[in-house]
Amino acid sequence: MSTEKGTISIHTENIFPVIKKFLYSDNEIFLRELVSNAVDASQKIKRLSSLGQFNGEVGELVVDVKFDEEAKTITISDNGIGMTAEEIKKYINQIAFSGATEFMEKFKEANDANEIIGRFGLGFYSAFMVADKVEIDSLSYQDGAEAAHWVCDGSTSYEISVGTRTTRGTDVILHINEDSKEFLSKFRLQEILDKYAKFLPVQVRFGTKTSSEPDGEDEEGKPKYKSVEVDNIINNTNPAWTKAPSELKDEDYLAFYRELYPNTFDEPLFWIHLNVDYPFNLTGILYFPKIKNELEIQRNKIKLYSRQVFITDEVKDIVPEYLMLLHGVIDSPDIPLNVSRSFLQADGNVKKISNYITKKVADKLQEIFKSDRKGFEEKWNDIGLFIKYGMLSEEKFAEKANEFCLVKNTEGENYTIKEYYEKVKDINADKDGNIVYLYTSDAAQQDGFIANAKAKGYDVLVLDGPLDTHFASYLEQKGGEKVQLKRVDSDVIDKLIQKDEKIELTLSEEESKKASELFTKAINRTDMNVQVEALAADELPVSVTLDEFMRRMKDMAKTGGGMGFYGNLPDNYKVTVNGNHPLVKRIVESSEEEAEKLAKQAFDLALLSRGLLTGADLTSFVKRSVEMI
To answer: What domains can be seen in the chain, in order of their start residue?
Structure first.
């Protein structure tokens, strides 16, 4: 074959400046693209052999990555299918653009390297993101094929001649430019290969590494080891998600979790093996980690692969937001390797995949709940946050989760939403037929209010998680007919669940007015609204509460519930003075000085029970208490 020179058929002189300039920020993906191409070439020869279209020895398929810091080259080699000169001209020299205008117009909309490369088929040409010159030396598997050598210096001109390769396969040699010398580093290349090639289906070798192997025993009979150089194989070619679930045991799933996240010490609670081939192809394993009782960006994200090539761990466009709390792997060839966010948002398969994953997760949770409710309840503290998050953000998930979502009361008893409604629908009904769910957000701090509720025979839920303010609203909407949720400390108990029986006020109208004036003066705070109420004589003399609606809106504002207006409003408390309590009667009948001191003491006690008495007010309370003893 004589040397041939020509022009790459891309219909525009602007392609290489575009690649070099605009793809620079994502330039590490050149290695992913070229290694993926080498893997594809290796798999093709294996496929041809299985079809009887190649009768030679396939041999051990390996992709080699090498670099020469002095020569400033990176070489990606494979022993795959190889290419003839004609195939190089067909697949490398012709980039299918219908014209320069179309390319430049479409490029204006592209925001990142993945999008441009994926949209225009520039996988191989990503090499020019880091190289001034690229060479290909290839020998096709075909009988009698002649080795071919191609070289391009980053312009639209190329040269093709007889190659030097004597064995089947392809070498791609990159002559690294001055701006990209960072890639002439063993550490940097290892980092990129670990990221993108960790589970490729063909072995990827990157030089050697030091390992230890047994070397007999010492004089005391203890085993000795010696250091040896072995091939540095980057990847596990047959990761757990590529196998059938029937092939795997629990220890295999746990071992794969540690392989995915080597710096994680906690084991997952359980997992879901995804395996579907219609109407789209999807495999993967999702793990349920132990979730702390707080919403946080997970360090170990779900990783998205395409045919075992890592794409990204930013999967929010393919995985519903609440599932981002899970860990694991999703692999789908229906998602192109060079995926872009705009593609994910527009692709129909992505929505189907998202719906499928939601269904599989809900089905798995329901299966565990039905087969082992006791075990499910034991895991609830670790998975409850995730399930509530899903119910609040995904209606289809919520429909199924209503069957296994649990609520817990202060006695530590667990109920499904339906079970709890049946438990309290008669006891907690008010005079208007509303079913009032009493709940606590801090059982220790609100213990006095809980005790009062229990004394009346009421049950109290524990809703103390970061999403429970929002979940309380969900329960009101979906928990059953005429359900209302009220925090146990948002008013005195007889006001929270009002019955038909009416309690008469023992104070006269004049005494009631005097009590109101005395407490208002003693408290002397604009954020406290004093009201004298007719309550049972054994109720507390003074209670300090925050209205349920206002408090809930303010809590939602703190957790980003779109209630920012309420979050900016000052707290405004209700001070309920029990007009039927003996202490209030005594205060009304005392001298002005004594009455004010007693009123202040009773109010401070109420504040203390709420954890609202601090600083100088607490110091004064302690001093006053000592004086009164």
So the answer is: 4-206 (3.30.565.10), 240-374 (3.30.230.80), 405-496 (3.40.50.11260), 509-628 (1.20.120.790)
